[in-house]
Amino acid sequence: MSQLLNRRLALLSERTNLTLLEQCLHGIERECLRVTADARLAQTPHPEELGSALTNDQITTDYSESLLEFITPALPDPAETLASLDKIHRFAYSKLGNEFLWSPSMPCPLPAEEDIPIAYYGTSNIGQLKYVYRKGLALRYGKTMQCIAGIHYNFSLPEALWPVLMQAEGFVGTERDYQSNAYIALIRNFRRYSWLLMYLFGASPALDAGFLRGRSHQLEQLDADTLYLPYATSLRMSDLGYQSNAQAGLTPCYNDLDSYTDSLRKAVATPYAPYVEIGTHKDGEWVQLNTNILQIENEYYSNIRPKRVTYTGERPIQALVSRGVQYVEVRLLDINPFLPVGIDLPEARFLDAFLLYCALQESPQFDSPECGSCTSNFLSVVKEGRRPGLQLQRDGAAVDMKEWAAELLEKIAPLAALLDQSHGGDTHSKALDDQLAKIRDVSLTPSAKVLASMAEHKESFAQFSMRQSQAHAEFFRSEPLSPEDQAAFEEKARKSLLEQAQTEQTEEGDFDLFVASYQASILAISN
């Protein structure tokens, strides 16, 4: 263990600092498709009873009108975060009629591209901006890829923790700079070790055969309707032939916040010839927000993002540049199709220990070879993480994946113990033991369990997923929310619809001007 990590552990173990770790915040965003009873994509509009997708801060849509997104508040105890997520699911099910929430990350059998409905947010300028952005995504990457769902885990260390570390380490600069540097260092370590999360939590080894729309691929046929890779952990996070050529040159290596925001700012302002050829309008209608590498910064696909809560009308990069990093958004987690809300408490507890390790462990800056090996290690594990004897690259040499995984868990153990010391109990250490069991026995991984369950029931991917979706529907519907909780969700939904209507009625200024000033806002930022 590095000296830096030892010093930081000792400092945070002191009685005056120990309670700090109780103030970490956790938020979860869970995406899921609405499907019909015959496992087809629901073609119905976003249910009005769930409120406005534009203004309801807990229930919205992601890419498609059929792709729901549930958002919890950021809470100090992940048990509370998961309880909040559970309630959102129960409320949704009270309004879904005969539709279901699709249990895994990879989509149900999809209709033709043109029949996948893009999410609609009404006639306000911001609503139209969200809609045109999604039209641009369809144009650039196809609609099929946008129907993949995942879980985003938002995590922050308490603001009061950074000055303690900063003072002990004699950092010269502002608290904001120290905090941003520390989060960027966390992200570098996350890039180094995130392959481990794909082995432990990857749950998409198979997918519906129609998903690839006849494109060439390296997948194997499991049955007439299912494609898979025998040792895959997460096809969702693999390249699957969907590499964005435009984004290929965009690899922020997270050596500091400035270079990260700068690379995204340039991408949002740099034209990309194939998009220029298409233009922003077709037959007088907007088809994409601009013809640049990225329409907006959120278009950049990454496994983890530095984040800061934005003010109304503010762009993510503006918030980061002006106020620094506030939390990280972990974006690579598959939905576990065996769990009703797609994630459980042991996974959350382990993620906390893993992220704390990434934050406190030494994190040297990347050089190009290391940046490349992080990417290739990650892709090896998503495609063949359960292959016996799989080798990864570490410091330019081959290393056995299982050996490295066990070593990492040993290094994370003191962080789990520190969290337990802070919170009382032993839940973090137990969560770590659960992960060690998966390293020793590959059949305990979610990806192995998915394939085993399909084999046991002689099911295709779609049949397995629908069976799980029905079981989860039963789970949520058998125990409705308390009348108070139900009423609170209904009131939130009603208010959100009113808020959208008010925005649409009182708005001034036309959409073209709105887009122009939105584009200009990014160009105005200078580091």
How does this model look, in words?
This protein is α+β, with helices and mostly antiparallel strands and 527 residues long. The protein has 18 helices and 14 strands. It has a single domain, classed as Creatine Kinase, Chain A, domain 2 (2-Layer Sandwich). The mean pLDDT is 95. The strands form four sheets. Strands 1, 2, 3, 4, 5, 11 and 12 form a seven-stranded antiparallel beta sheet that branches. The chain has a three-stranded antiparallel beta sheet with strand order 6-8-7, with no helix packed on it. A two-stranded antiparallel ribbon has the order 9-10. One of its GO terms (molecular function) is ATP binding.
Record the SSE blueprint.
Blueprint lengths: L2 H11 L1 H4 L6 E11 L23 E3 L5 E5 L6 H18 L4 E2 L23 H17 L9 E6 L4 H9 L5 H19 L1 H7 L4 E3 L11 E4 L2 E3 L28 H13 L3 H6 L2 E2 L2 E2 L17 E4 L8 H8 L3 E7 L11 H16 L7 H17 L6 E4 L2 E4 H23 L3 H14 L5 H11 L4 H17 L5 H24 L4 H13 L4
Family: Belongs to the glutamate--cysteine ligase type 1 family. Type 1 subfamily.
Protein name: Glutamate--cysteine ligase
GO cellular component, one term: cytosol
